[in-house]
Design goal:
two-stranded antiparallel ribbon, globular
Length: 203
């Protein structure tokens, strides 16, 4: 039987180890539990940095997105997550994905700078410090089989597909499946069920 969230919280508090913080994030996001059981886990997440939570989300998004059939050249081609303007996120995500794979595909993290090509990128995260150029970056990704993820309240209106928001101090996300569909991407119903808000519906 799997450990309950409250049990893991007690263990992590004793050990005070950084990996425990990420384990708590995983539990909160993806382990079914009753609200009364999850409350201690939510409280413990106050000690986990916002970018750490978002890094785990990005890693988990990989398993809930369906890309067009010809996106990858071979069954073992890596899934590449590009990070624009969020070095702390990129460094954390690199640590999170180390030694992990999705259906046999390695997951690669690539830091992107101004003018870098989006070729080979499967998920693109655009940090909030790039908000002045959100529209430009998203326009460059439009129509490409790239899941775009942002953290700005106006990003969905510019064509982002998933956007992080803070709700009562906790990281949540809103999704635009119809926008994703325009790039031939499909967001799993299971992921949409976990969204704080859905903008439009995929037809």
């Amino acid at each position: 039987m799997s450990a309950q969230p409250s049990t893991v919280v007690r263990i992590c508090r004793r050990r005070m180890a950084k990996p425990c913080g990420l384990l708590l994030v995983w539990l909160l996001l993806f382990m079914p539990c009753q609200p009364s059981q999850c409350e201690p886990t939510v409280a413990a997440l106050s000690n986990v940095a916002e970018f750490q939570v978002k890094a785990v989300y990005l890693y988990k998004f990989v398993g809930y997105i369906e890309w067009p059939q010809n996106t990858f050249s071979s069954p073992d081609s890596p899934i590449t997550i590009g990070i624009r303007g969020a070095d702390s996120m990129a460094n954390e995500l690199t640590r999170v994905v180390a030694a992990h794979a999705d259906n046999g595909r390695a997951i690669v993290v690539r830091k992107l700078g101004n003018g870098d090509s989006l070729s080979g990128i499967n998920i693109l995260f655009i940090g909030n410090d790039q908000r002045e150029t959100y529209a430009e970056i998203l326009a460059a990704a439009k129509g490409l089989p790239i899941l775009t993820v942002t953290e700005n309240e106006d990003a969905l209106s510019h064509g982002s597909m998933i956007n992080f928001v803070l709700v009562d101090g906790h990281v949540r996300f809103e999704a635009a499946p119809k926008t994703a569909k325009l790039s031939n991407l499909s967001i799993s119903a299971r992921l949409l069920a976990a969204a704080y808000r859905i903008i439009g519906e995929a037809s």
